[in-house]
Design goal:
Length: 413
């Protein structure tokens, strides 16, 4: 059942707010982007957390619906008013759910028919190599592969790095569909694009933070990102990211698309995964540049509404606004300048008007805890992670489970 909230206070960009339905595993970041852009947001995800409620007109927790995740998202979407919709992670692994929702309303983003071309490891490998880019060796069967950690066992329908383990003598055979991928030694990166029929635009790139012990994260689990301005990227790395974007446009993807890669010591970009929807690291780009990811995501296919269901809800009104949106963030707020100095600038970490890049570490109950580099910082009331506020989550579990409130801060490493 959807829960209705009073409309947030946002910077108006439309005479009459355009409704938008947002669904996925975690809708908070994109919902905040859409609300900032003047959209009236209806959202359903696994958490229905306070930050999402602050940004949305009505929300639903798919855990409370028949079928749970992901099939319950179909009923959740039908409980919202007629409006276009977009999907978030990890619904790219469930194209049937996307098709079912698209029968009633317009889809903004990549069509279901395009998803297999980048989610199937071997289709992605062909696409990448056809573009003369690097793609790791992949196998569907581990027999004959060395069990020395030089290969990774990865779920075919994975998300957020969950379930990825080195293939070693003690590694059990996974119970789910698995691909064994050659492990590339280097730095984990993500690249963000806006893709249309006319081509692609590289929005930005960020270094990924994976498996951090102080986030209580398992190996390879996504913990956050550090924004890296495009001007600071080596020319060869930027060219490879740009060439990848052109290949993604050619296979039918649309809207915001993310790609995960490992850059080795020689500067070769090894493409390991493509996420055909808005990604977590894009939140950094919006805050650093002020460009609305929500607006850019729908730029190729203007929002038109289908036949949505009527909203069935109970209104719970609370005092709150989005003048200082709250995100599910933990850790330091930094930006890497092209000179190599990392600092935060701007009125608030959450204020895109400050044009401040941010390092958004997601998850972990010890936001600045052990393992974090020593920092010289002045925290003007910065709150490190408060007790877990996401519904149904227990403290100590990894990735995207905690919310916090930031005030002004300046951090210099």
């Amino acid at each position: 059942m959807a829960t209705s909230h009073c409309s947030p206070s946002v910077r108006p960009m439309h005479d009459a707010p355009t409704p938008l339905v947002v669904i996925g595993g975690s809708a908070r970041a994109f919902a905040v982007s859409a609300a900032r852009a003047g959209r009236r947001v209806y959202a359903a995800d696994l958490f229905d957390d306070l930050d999402l409620r602050a940004a949305a007109t009505a929300t639903a927790c798919v855990r409370d619906l028949a079928g749970g995740y992901p099939s319950g998202l179909v009923a959740a979407a039908r409980s919202f008013p007629a409006a276009a919709f977009c999907f978030l992670g990890a619904l790219e692994n469930h194209p049937d759910v996307i098709r079912a929702i698209a029968r009633d309303r317009t889809l903004l983003g990549s069509p279901p028919a395009s998803l297999a071309g980048v989610r199937d490891p071997w289709s992605l490998q062909r696409l990448v190599r056809h573009a003369e880019l690097a793609s790791p060796e992949c196998h569907a069967d581990p027999r004959g592969l060395p069990r020395d950690g030089s290969f990774l066992a990865k779920p075919v329908a994975g998300a957020g790095g969950r379930g990825i383990v080195p293939w070693q003598p003690t590694t059990p055979t996974p119970p789910h569909a698995t691909v064994w991928q050659r492990r590339i030694v280097g730095t984990a990166w993500s690249a963000s694009y806006i893709v249309s029929a006319a081509g692609s635009r590289l929005l930005g790139a960020s270094r990924q933070l994976l498996g951090l012990p102080w986030c209580h994260a398992r190996s390879f689990a996504y913990c956050g990102s550090i924004d890296e301005p495009l001007a600071g990227l080596p020319a060869a790395v930027r060219r490879q990211f740009t060439d990848l974007g052109a290949a993604l446009a050619g296979c039918g993807l649309r809207g915001a698309v993310g790609a995960d890669a490992v850059v080795d010591a020689a500067g070769v970009v090894w493409v390991v995964e493509v996420n055909p929807r808005p990604c977590a690291s894009m939140e950094l780009i919006e805050r650093a540049t002020g460009e609305s990811i929500a607006d850019a995501h729908g730029i190729d296919r203007p929002a038109t509404v289908g036949q949505g269901g009527a909203l069935r809800s109970t209104c719970h009104r609370r005092r709150r606004g989005l003048a200082r949106p709250r995100g599910s963030l933990a850790g330091a707020v930094v930006r890497r300048e092209p000179s190599g100095d990392r600092r935060h600038s701007g009125s608030r970490p959450h204020d895109p008007g400050g044009r401040a890049g941010v390092h958004a570490v997601r998850g972990g109950r010890h936001g600045g805890g052990g393992g974090r580099p020593a920092a010289r910082a002045h925290h003007g009331g910065v709150g490190f992670p408060q007790p877990a506020r996401r519904r149904g989550m227990a403290a100590g579990r990894d990735s995207k489970q905690y919310s916090m409130r930031y005030a002004s801060s300046v951090v210099s490493w």
